[in-house]
Known about the structure:
Layout: H1 2-31, H2 45-64, H3 91-107, H4 110-139, H5 141-149
Helix pairs in contact: 1-2, 1-3, 1-4, 2-3, 3-4, 4-5
Amino acid sequence: xxxxxxxxxxxxxxVPGTVLYLVPSWILHRTGRVLSLRGWGLPGLVPLCAExxxxxxxxxxxxxxxxxxxAAIDPPRRFVSKGFYRWMRNPMYVGALLxxxxxxxxxxxxxxxLYTLAVFLCFQLFVVLYEEPVLTKKFGPAYSCYHxxxxxxxxxxxx
Length: 159
């Protein structure tokens, strides 16, 4: 279990760290924009904080429940439908998009908005063309039922 937590931590630093911090920082630096809480910027912190909760909770479930990491190089060995996965199939991707939206809101950078859209399109293509077919093949009827019942991007809350 500790090895999975360590690998998940490394993955989060490298992949989401690059997509959500390094690239946006480079974009903002190149365009002369900065993240700012002046004016109406405070609501931009909401998606940033939500992302941390989504990311950490989802990563925990991948490492502990799924016995793997949230990456194709070492996917979970067990099907994960706990935590935020009860309400949507892709909480980590949604969380990543929320942080990019928050960064855009705090900077109002058009280039960052385009980057956010490009990231969403990449997520959509990856999920539809690779991830969902692989999960259907790997977990069979359990994933097929989950796929029918749980939405991909917008959460459906049930008690």
